[in-house]
Amino acid sequence: MDNILNFYKHLDGKYLNSNNLKDCAKRLMCEYRIVKGNFYYQIAEIEFYFYSFDHKDIITYPRNCFQGLWFFHQSGVDLTILSSDQGLNPSFGGILIRSIIKYGKNGEYIKTICGPQKCVNELFDYLNAIDNSIERTPIINKFSFSTCDVVSTQRFISFDVKGVNNLEKDDYQRIICQKAKNKFENILASNKRYKNRIGENEKEEWLITSSLNSFESFCDYLRAIYRYYLKDIMWESGYKAANVDKDDKSYKFLLV
User: Fold this and answer.
1) Distance (Å, rounded) from C-alpha 230 to C-alpha 46?
2) What is each CA distance from 65 to 1, 13, 24, 79, in whole angstroms?
3) Residue 32's pLDDT is what?
4) pTM value?
């Protein structure tokens, strides 16, 4: 598991190394399971997130924690990497759990849970608050799944663009671009989150120069191929992130 959670140690230019990410994703989905009570789960869809001085993926939620923890945030739950606070060069991140497949204790298929918030609701519906029992606490252990064909695509980072599917492509892209700029500016303006990403001196300098070039870098990471999922997963009906075509207008993603 430590090797899987060390995905961030391998960069290919400004991006995480794709071969290493695929290997980590395949191992996590094929060689491990999440166990809770009498049920176990195969991880079926994930996204990688990492922020550092050399990989400024600022959409990553800040955290300061050990490796191998469940980290809850407003988008779902991550399996964390080791955070590092080194003045102007902090680093943090994790693997977002997007979809899981539920099995009974005898290995019978029960259902597929799609979407990061639904995964949180399934895995953490309630925990023991009195005797520190781990019976209902989801834990990850070794397991071998027979079939595991993993494919990759862009992370599914949606924007509120309801009612614009009938627009021409140029107008649609313009709206998406403005939504992305709004998100970018909101992240920069959020002092509580932003000062955890970089030091105060770099913050002041970056805020001054954070125009086109910084926004372009932000978009580059939005488009990065950091999502992995099982090829033959039985998606929930209507799940909006299921094996979508990035050129489809119904795909609420950045098309710039």
Assistant:
1) 10
2) 17, 26, 21, 11
3) 97
4) 0.87
CA distances, 8 to each of 20, 51, 55, 156, 195 (Å): 9, 9, 9, 20, 21
pLDDT tens, position by position, 159-207: 766 666 666 767 777 887 888 888 888 887 774 554 555 555 555 444 4
Helix 200-209, helix 212-222: angle, nearest 10: 100
State the alpha helices, DSSP H only, in 130-168: none
Cα–Cα distance list, 143 to 1, 79, 116, 167 (Å): 12, 17, 22, 48
**103 DSSP β-pair partners:** 40, 109
pLDDT at 158: 76
DSSP string, 159-180: ---TT-TTS-HHHHHHHHHHHH
Specify the DSSP element, H or E, that contains 99.
strand 92-103
